[in-house]
């Protein structure tokens, strides 16, 4: 399993709501008008379901990324993350750790071939791929991460960064 440790923070999403720009509203209206005209012109050629049926059949054949069930628990010392990854091996999983975020990616390929008298009779290739990113509820130390994969469950142990202790300082007059 490959673990990448990042100590710098990645940029976060813009927190302020985007202002409504009249230009982009006009572009959106133009796009909606164009799609309506395309649907009116070519919709009858695609049968009863129209263009929607064409797009549904195309997306039905595309590989869909697997959802990865994740459980995150907080303890006094750190965080525990459990991810269910049945069929994946250690070398097929990549983990990237930042102080406030974790990214999990994996790719699993499997090829099944059957031959008869030295000639291929049947061949099948399957693959599963996933990408998950998580915001952590507290800051962790990227250099102290332990990950183990056992029976299809990935367990990751993160150590919290301890906050600086407050030390009272007495101010004396000179």
Topology as a string of helices (H) and strands (E) = EHHEEEEEEE
Could you please say which CATH topology of the largest domain applies here?
A: Immunoglobulin-like
| CATH architecture group name of the largest domain | Sandwich
Stretches with pLDDT under 50, minimum 5 residues: 10-18, 56-64
How much is the average pLDDT?
76
What spatial form do the alpha-carbon principal axes imply?
flat
DSSP strand tally: 8
Distance from N terminus to C terminus (CA atoms, Å) equals 60 Å
Strand content: 35-45%
The top-level CATH class of the largest domain is Mainly Beta
Instruction: Label the structural class.
Output: alpha+beta
> What Rg is obtained from the alpha carbons, in whole angstroms?
26 Å
Oligomeric state of the chains in view: single chain
- How many discrete domains? 2
SS field, number of helical segments: 2
Q: Helical amount among residues, as a percent range?
A: 10-25%
Strand order of the largest sheet: 1-4-5-6
* Biggest sheet record: 4 strands, mixed
Summarize the structure.
The chain is built from 2 helices and 8 strands, in the order E-H-H-E-E-E-E-E-E-E.
Characteristic terms for this protein:
single chain; 174 residues; alpha+beta; Immunoglobulin-like; 2 domains; 4-stranded mixed beta sheet; 4-stranded antiparallel beta sheet; 19% helix; flat
Characterise the protein shown here:
With 174 residues, the protein is an alpha+beta fold. The protein folds into 2 domains: 2-7 and 65-160, Immunoglobulin-like (Sandwich), CATH 2.60.40; 22-61. The protein is 19% helix and 42% strand. The protein has helices at residues 22-42, 50-61; strands at residues 2-5, 70-74, 78-84, 93-97, 101-116, 119-135, 140-150, 153-160. A 4-stranded mixed beta sheet has the order 1-4-5-6, with no helix packed on it. Strand 5 (101-116) and strand 6 form a beta hairpin. The relative contact order is 0.19. Mean pLDDT is 76; it is low at 10-18 and 56-64.
């Amino acid at each position: 399993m490959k673990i990448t440790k990042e100590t710098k923070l990645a940029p976060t999403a813009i927190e302020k709501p985007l202002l409504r720009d009249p230009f982009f509203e006009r572009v959106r209206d133009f796009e909606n008008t164009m799609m309506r005209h395309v649907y009116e012109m070519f919709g009858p050629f695609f049968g009863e379901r129209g263009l929607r049926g064409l797009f549904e059949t195309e997306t039905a054949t595309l590989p869909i990324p697997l959802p990865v069930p994740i459980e995150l628990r907080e303890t006094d010392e750190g965080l525990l993350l459990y991810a269910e990854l049945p069929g994946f091996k250690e070398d097929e999983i990549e983990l990237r750790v930042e102080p406030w975020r974790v990214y999990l990616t994996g790719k699993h390929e499997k090829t099944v071939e059957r031959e008869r008298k030295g000639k291929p009779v049947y061949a099948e290739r399957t693959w599963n791929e996933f990408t998950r990113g998580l915001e952590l509820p507290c800051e962790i130390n990227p250099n102290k991460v332990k990950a183990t994969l056992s029976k299809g469950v990935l367990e990751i142990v993160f150590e919290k960064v301890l906050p600086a202790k407050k030390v009272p300082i007495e101010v004396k007059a000179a």
